[in-house]
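Sample intake sheet
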Amino acid sequence: TYRAAVGYLNQGKMEDKPFDPERAPIITEAFDLYKTGEWSLIDLARHMAKKGFTTAPTRPRRTKEEILADEDDDDEEKEIEKVSQIINACGVQRILTNRFYTGRILNSEGEWIPSISHKRLVNDDVFENVQLMLKKKKTSLYYTEKIEYLHRGKVRCAECGRLYTPYKK
């Protein structure tokens, strides 16, 4: 009963969510490119933008001033124009982690079940490979076991200004 993900057309019916002929091939290509491990999210976002990929057109949020102005002017009904956005790295990550593209929807218990309303855009194997690549590239700047040294956090590097840390990197 909710909106379809980017790459599918929202036609006002929940029974049928066909592929978007402009965006669906680019999304399929993005999954295929990212699973190779040679692409970063930023590079993939740039590549998709060069191919003309944008988000589905939506109305932008109104500012407080616009909301207050609308309350004053009840006579005029202004149509807010829909706007498409260029994709960024966060948007690419949202696409790559969305199981909707495997032909599933989220049910009321929070489980992903096969969908009747839309077909899959990406195979399960490709989706799982992409998830592995995302986990593999995810690095943390925090250490799980901190080593207690006398000057830890008190001495700074003269060149870069970073705090001294005794870990090998």
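Comment: The longest strand covers residues 104-106. The mean pLDDT is 83.
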